[in-house]
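Allow me, if you will, to draw on your knowledge of protein folds for a short while. I have a record of one protein: its chain in single-letter code and its fold written as discrete structure tokens. I remain grateful for any guidance, and I place the record below:
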Amino acid sequence: MHTAFADSYPVRRDRLAQQMQSTANAAVRLKKDTSNLFRDRVDGQNQELSVRDFNHLLEIDIENQTLVSEGMNPYGELVDATLQYGFMPMVVPQLNSITIGGAVAGIGIESTSFKFGLPHETVIEMEVLLADGSIVNCTPTNEHADLYFGLPNSYGTLGYVLKLKTPALPVKRFVKLDHKLYRDAEEFFGVIAALRNSDIDFLDGSVFGRNEYYLTIGQFTDTAPFTSDYTYLDIYYKSIPEKQTDYLTVKDYIWRWDTDWFWCSKNLYVQNGLMRRLVGKKRLNSRTYTKVMRWNSKWGITNFLNRMGGYHPESVIQDIDIPIENAT
């Protein structure tokens, strides 16, 4: 099934390619609404290439269980669009402002990754805009296979993903969660390795301390005796040690970490009930925290605090992938 944006994609794609060709080898930066890169950058003379129009679901094939999306489509919008048809992307990174193309060109991981891998490992094919303005279609077996395998984790240095096709995962209404505590790291990671070929749907690990490792197993279910809500006053990560079993709607499960940006909301003092009410439900999400980070980067508040009193000497946000055999 094609969406209303599928027919206009070739026109928008060709127009963007012409704009890229007209830059005459000048330095280019993308103009888009979301970004999950947190390095400080000084605005230079780079020409801006607007990709804001490339944020739509183009097709969902219910029979073959695949979807086609534009690369700058944030997972928040992509999940909303696919859930209407009873599907979700096979791997959905935890923050809804992450784009599907960004997860492929950068890095992304979630609780289905134990079974399906990282987002780029689920890609069937993708169209990539190159620096000379040409557009190539990459698959694992065609003449552009080297780019298909080389583009992941290249952070836009090899090209920009404009469109990609991936599998779509059928969903049920709810997800049942079982949290189990482990006191030994080797046992904890050993259980994770043993579950790789199991029939569970989701596998998540949370480390609260040197001897406090929680494994969360998730299973799709059509019914639930109750559902928890971590989109406002209650905080998901705090529930893990408190509840052995929990139930969430599938959408709330997908974004369980987004409300508090994992646990980083404490840095903005919004884990306090009064502050959460003052901030409001609509602002408790990763997009708000990202805006605050950008604002801080622009005005240098934490740098000032460091100079004055030694607070916030360094801020690092970086995803690191470690093979399970090296995790202990």
In short: The chain is about 25% helix and 20% strand. The mean pLDDT is 90. The radius of gyration is 21 Å. The CA atoms of residues 66 and 167 lie 4 Å apart.
